[in-house]
Amino acid sequence: MEFMVYRDTWMKYEYEVDKDFTSKLRINIDITVAMRCQYVGADVLDLAETMVASADGLIYEPVVFELSPQQKEWQRMLQLIQNRLQEEHSLQDVIFKSAFKSASTALPPREDNSLQSPDACRIHGHLYVNKVAGNFHITVGKAIPHPRGHAHLAALVSHESYNFSHRIDHLSFGELIPGIINPLDGTEKIASDHNQMFQYFITVVPTKLHTYKISAETHQFSVTERERVINHAAGSHGVSGIFMKYDISSLMVTVTEEHMPFWQFLVRLCGIIGGIFSTTGILHGFGRFVAEVVFCRFRLGSYRSTSVPLPDGHTSNHLPLITDNSTH
């Protein structure tokens, strides 16, 4: 058992202020929207009013929104893992240890050659943005620069064709690490109305990961969700689409895999061996004491005193003295 403990490892978490403000933040994206590619546009706008267009690293691929049986099974298993991760936070340590060793978490390709015409758009790739808070969004129309930010050419798209049902196959920040499951992986949302807004509020935490298998700089994040129907008459204003508003934490987490040092293993092993010898010595001494008491009592019982008559008619219970005359 002690050797099993020695072989086991654990994750150590350390926190410090993130002093890197000049580097770029990489966003890895793989999202499928239930609209044709010519009707949607994706880009990033940060607090510094810097616009990063999707042409800088994203690919628009026409696909079928309905998943194949194998892909549905993959999504079901991924959602089960996400539910367990929300209940058992310690499983995150297991995922860190198995990074680069476990199977890829990417959506597998279709195993059936569907003859159905593409009715959705898969937007995948990566973008490099400033390390400040920003807003990655997918909405109707392609983005165009604007003096006060940017705008989308949505006037030529009919409202009846709006459908922001979407599936997030992967969303992560920082270096892409196979085997790491992120909070939004496998998320699927079905729009109940044409004019519907989906919002994700994300807090990104810079993370340095050091295990016996890898050493990488990545980012963890937490997310809260909100969705609502855009109805200006009812006071629900906004723009239909998918909006991911992210903010960068000022703290950086360093996750290090550690295990028991060999010298500590030897000390604990010697302690166990010494304890066994001490315990057996105590038991042996106690057993010897009990045995001596018991056997000595029986031995004294075999030497009982006898009565000796005296000349004056009295008796003596003392044993007669042994002298030289009596010996002869």
UniProtKB/TrEMBL annotation:
Annotated compartments: Endoplasmic reticulum membrane; Endoplasmic reticulum-Golgi intermediate compartment membrane; Golgi apparatus membrane
Main location: endoplasmic reticulum
Endoplasmic reticulum vesicle transporter N-terminal domain sequence ranges: 1-49
Record-linked Pfam families: COPIIcoated_ERV (PF07970), ERGIC_N (PF13850)
Keywords linked to the UniProt accession: Endoplasmic reticulum, ER-Golgi transport, Golgi apparatus, Membrane, Transmembrane, Transmembrane helix, Transport
Domain spans labelled Endoplasmic reticulum vesicle transporter C-terminal: 116-282
Domain of life of the source: Eukaryota
Bilayer topology: Multi-pass membrane protein
Similarity remark: Belongs to the ERGIC family.
Task of the protein: Plays a role in transport between endoplasmic reticulum and Golgi.
Name the record gives this protein: Endoplasmic reticulum-Golgi intermediate compartment protein
